């Protein structure tokens, strides 16, 4: 006989709808339902004066947490509060930022604002090409800006996600040479969703390399969907020299 569900009634509808169809719209509805929990976690771990960047990371961590939630083991609120603990380190890192030249600091703010706007509107992370279009910054400039970020800002978040998933570098979705001209050519021919899969698989444009489970959480799709898309991307990467065969 299965154990009784501990999922709170107020979250049950949005959670089950997201579980059945884990797309951006369902993820956005679920994030709105748990917004009071996220606000409590931000206050607890980062204080009332938490930055927009920390609040944005709270949503990203919540998306990661939904994927690993088991209603038979804990309440969703408890699960989220545990999984959002990296906000404490994120907040500490944000309080002691790396000193940047004025132009770089302004560009960094444009990058962060555009990323937050995309996540709020679409329920997923944007690709570097989408950010470049929105900000007027080149993708190579974005890579340099991301290199300025304190390691804990990206590293703590990704480490928490990978530890919970049991994933790591060995489970990245796509393999290839990130500094190869062919890789850039293939990247430019992809949809924004597939571009993000490539970027987080190969570390393109300053993106951290993460597991396909973490990529799925960032995009609001299932790990299986990431694998299917990755297979098509990998086929294009492996098709060097066979463009005439209709692979691109």
Number of domains: 2
Sheet of most strands: none
**Distance separating the two termini:** 51 Å
Shape: globular
User: Count of DSSP helices?
Assistant: 14
- SSE class: mainly alpha
Integer average pLDDT: 80
Low-confidence stretches: 150-171, 242-248
- Using only CA atoms, what is the Rg? 19 Å
Name the helix and strand elements from N-terminus to C-terminus, one letter apiece: HHHHHHHHHHHHHH
Q: Helical amount among residues, as a percent range?
A: 55-70%
Share of β-strand residues: under 5%
Please count the beta strands (DSSP E, at least 2 residues each).
0
What does this structure look like?
66% of the residues lie in helices and 0% in strands. By secondary structure, it is an all-alpha fold. The protein has two domains: 1-96, Rna Polymerase Sigma Factor, Chain: A (Orthogonal Bundle), CATH 1.10.1740; 102-248, no CATH class. Mean pLDDT is 80; it is low at 150-171 and 242-248.
Brief descriptors of the model:
single chain; 248 residues; mainly alpha; Rna Polymerase Sigma Factor, Chain: A; 2 domains; globular; disordered C terminus
Structure at a glance:
The chain has helices at residues 9-20, 24-33, 35-46, 52-67, 76-83, 87-95, 102-122, 128-135, 139-148, 151-165, 181-188, 192-202, 212-219, 223-237.
Topology (elements, then pairings):
Layout: H1 9-20, H2 24-33, H3 35-46, H4 52-67, H5 76-83, H6 87-95, H7 102-122, H8 128-135, H9 139-148, H10 151-165, H11 181-188, H12 192-202, H13 212-219, H14 223-237
Helix pairs in contact: 1-2, 3-4, 3-6, 4-5, 4-13, 6-10, 13-14
